[in-house]
């Protein structure tokens, strides 16, 4: 069992905010400057539920192993928002 905590970008040395100029920023049109942090907003089907904030990019380190060999961790870049 693992203790799963809420993600905290301040606790990561590899996290960074996406800028409005980034190709992954769908709401870049909301920005006054392309150098601003990229906002996001999602409305869910459940009544009155939504989330919004700023997109963050970070690196996810995944351990890979099988019975035959142990490999180096895989590093995947992810966007969280």
TrEMBL record:
Q: Where is the Xylanase inhibitor N-terminal domain?
A: 4-72
- Select a single GO molecular function from the record's annotations and give it: aspartic-type endopeptidase activity
Any GO BP annotation: proteolysis
Source taxon at top rank: Eukaryota
Q: Which Gene3D superfamilies match?
A: Acid Proteases
Q: Please report which protein family the annotation says this sequence is part of.
A: Belongs to the peptidase A1 family.
What is the protein's given name?
A: Xylanase inhibitor N-terminal domain-containing protein
Q: Which organism is it from?
A: Nymphaea colorata
């Amino acid at each position: 069992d693992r203790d799963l905590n809420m993600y905290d970008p301040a606790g990561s040395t590899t996290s960074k905010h996406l800028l409005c100029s980034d190709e992954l920023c769908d709401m870049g049109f909301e920005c006054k400057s392309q150098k601003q942090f990229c906002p996001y907003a999602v409305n869910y089907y459940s009544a009155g539920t939504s989330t919004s904030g700023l997109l963050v990019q970070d690196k996810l380190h995944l351990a890979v192993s099988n019975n035959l060999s142990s490999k180096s961790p895989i590093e995947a870049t992810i966007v969280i928002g």
